């Protein structure tokens, strides 16, 4: 909280706007570069052992955070430099616009009855086996992914940016990327990816709760969102996806969860919002709009929280 709150507010807003206007670049994305570096480290360190996975997570996430901290320290003497660095980091780590574009592309294919195209595009959004899904199941997968990734790709990053500035932004995205790379329960990563998965659970905890709270406030049915989130969030096997998906299910008045297929393995998850109707294709657009409202509210909330925190710390030092 010691950093300039005005500089953070300006930089975060500019970076948020950059993501909204530009989205992710097709080539040369910093997150993709981090992924390649993390993969190279994995090739050297991999063993079917939790300790090796913990070292991998520490080197990759810690190295990214340390590099960001050095850049932030160098930019501390100049407000314009600090704003520019915060804007660039915020733009690099946010993925709300690309999330919405992918969801809408799948929704568009489903709307015209082209399930094959929807199946082809679904892996861009989530890791489920698209060949096992019909049109309605694809729509449900998209809504669930929009909900979860609103937290992972936007809100969580903004929360850690408010807490830790540029290093917080970068560290959160590094941890989230590592979880996507090695944190799943495949035979190769069951042990090696354990540390990355647990670290992502910890890092994602505050953002998931804020996302759920904002979905309750911003959704078309706040009472329904609160009811389903309070009742069903803990039923989900993920401590962070549960509150987010349950709040979206209640806000949109749809039923989420159930049987899922991931590359040869099947999961039977509890249903969230069992009293609601099944997801329809039109709900994809409704979910994207809710995600955008939640993201904008998260920007305002995190900027305000950092400003208040900075003022509080200043007041304490001046006593």
UniProtKB/TrEMBL annotation:
Secretion signal span: none
InterPro entries referenced in this protein's UniProt entry, alphabetically: Cobalamin_biosynth_CobD/CbiB
Membrane association type: Multi-pass membrane protein
Pfam family, any one: CobD_Cbib
Key words of the record: Cell membrane, Cobalamin biosynthesis, Membrane, Transmembrane, Transmembrane helix
Coiled-coil annotated residue ranges, if any: none
Subcellular location: Cell membrane
Pathway(s) this gene product operates in, as recorded in its UniProt entry: Cofactor biosynthesis; adenosylcobalamin biosynthesis
Family membership noted in the UniProt record: Belongs to the CobD/CbiB family.
Function (record text): Converts cobyric acid to cobinamide by the addition of aminopropanol on the F carboxylic group.
Protein's recorded name: Cobalamin biosynthesis protein CobD
Organism of provenance: Streptomyces hiroshimensis
Lineage: Bacteria, Bacillati, Actinomycetota, Actinomycetes, Kitasatosporales
Gene name linked to the record: cobD
């Amino acid at each position: 909280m010691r950093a300039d709150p005005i500089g953070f507010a300006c930089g975060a807003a500019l970076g948020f706007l950059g993501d909204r206007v530009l989205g992710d670049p097709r080539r040369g994305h910093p997150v993709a570069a981090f992924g390649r570096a993390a993969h190279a480290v994995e090739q050297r360190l991999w063993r079917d052992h939790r300790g090796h996975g913990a070292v991998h997570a520490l080197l990759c996430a810690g190295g990214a955070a340390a590099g960001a901290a050095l850049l932030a320290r160098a930019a501390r003497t100049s407000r314009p430099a600090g704003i520019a660095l915060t804007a660039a980091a915020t733009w690099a780590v946010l993925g709300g616009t690309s999330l919405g574009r992918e969801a809408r592309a799948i929704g568009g294919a489903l709307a015209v009855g082209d399930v094959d195209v929807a199946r082809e595009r679904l892996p861009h959004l989530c890791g489920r086996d698209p060949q096992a899904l019909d049109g309605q199941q694809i729509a449900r997968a998209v809504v669930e992914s929009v909900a979860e990734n609103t937290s992972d790709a936007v809100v969580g990053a903004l929360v850690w940016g408010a807490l830790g500035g540029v290093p917080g932004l970068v560290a959160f995205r590094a941890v989230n990327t590592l979880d996507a790379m090695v944190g799943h329960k495949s035979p190769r990563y069951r042990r090696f990816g354990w540390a990355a998965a647990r670290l992502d659970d910890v890092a994602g905890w505050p953002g998931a709760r804020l996302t759920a709270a904002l979905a309750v406030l911003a959704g078309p049915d706040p009472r329904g969102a609160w009811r389903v989130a309070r009742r069903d969030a803990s039923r989900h096997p993920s401590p962070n996806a549960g509150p987010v998906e349950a709040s979206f299910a209640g806000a949109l008045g749809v039923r989420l969860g159930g049987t899922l297929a991931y590359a040869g393995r099947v999961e039977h998850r509890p249903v969230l919002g069992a009293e609601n109707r099944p997801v329809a294709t039109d709900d994809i657009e409704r979910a994207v709009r809710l995600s955008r409202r939640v993201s904008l509210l998260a920007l305002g909330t995190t900027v305000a929280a950092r400003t208040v925190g900075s003022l509080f710390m200043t007041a304490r030092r001046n006593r």
